[in-house]
């Protein structure tokens, strides 16, 4: 029995016309000898009647924060509707489909409502249905506690559901269907000549997803990587070959870089020792910010200066914390973090120099850099973000 998990996003199931495309993908998998397990998101996006954000608008924020268990129960409704409607359409197309909630599919989670973690999968029910030649249509984004309460897995949770089930069922592949042809070398809305990436490694795509690319959720990649189940990113609306994600990436490609992603709404903070002499809190500034739940990245610590970036949403909290500690600092608003990603850059000299030169030659100021074995980050002014991405995309011939 060869199982393939096929996950379809909100756009794919939002209309009857789109769901016909879903049926084609399911039928094709059956023709190829696979037993499909379908995972569905809620229909459409905010404003459409059954979208998750639309459902959430029915209750106020005070109630949501005080009753996360109830919030989860409401949020699961969108996927439940999708699974039943999709099962109906498959049935009308001659395919025996059975809608299942995440809990019925065997996904057990902890009690962290609205951002639950899967602790165990009991796929007995799914395997029974598959052995009978029936198609399970599982609600993405959700599971159930041991006490029977419905939970959700956080944003991007339907991708995570697909990976969780793919690993538990030892699937041949996990297919993530969306409204794009696959993973691109850069956001095509920013880079007009961005290209489809045929094959990419788990590690590279995890970096892309974690640094701003939105085709697949990082947690889903992490789960699939741990189970060594290949992922295919495909377009529901076309027959594009898509992007294959596996352990090794594209061995036949000698390009140093694979892709570029970016994140807006960053703020750079600089705190200098010379300006804070006599203030004992200078040495403990990172602990102070951590205690106030302010997340930092691009952290550079020097003997006489501490530099880091934060998300724009934390600006007011950070200013209050630093001001109350009588710490002097410099702040640069409206920054973007551009990430250049490629597993082959490790051990290759001159990559950072090439990046800095390309940006400098185009009068793009680099405010800060950081690097790992497969990612180089450059902080730039947000007004230069688009140009920086295009320059680097051209420089590395992506």
- Give the uncertain stretches in residue-range form: none
**Class derived from helix and strand content:** alpha/beta
Gyration radius, in Å: 23 Å
Secondary-structure element order, N to C: EHEHHHEEEHEEEHEEHHEEEHEEHEHEEH
| Total strand segments | 18
Q: Can you walk through the features of this model?
A:
The protein is of the alpha/beta class and 398 residues long. The chain contains twelve helices and 18 strands. Helix 6 runs parallel beside helix 8 (218-227), helix 7 (202-210) packs antiparallel against helix 8 and helix 11 packs across helix 12 (385-395). The longest helix has 25 residues, at 68-92. It is globular and about 75 Å long.
In brief:
The chain has 398 residues and is of the alpha/beta class.
Key phrases:
398 residues, six-stranded antiparallel beta sheet, eight-stranded mixed beta sheet, alpha/beta
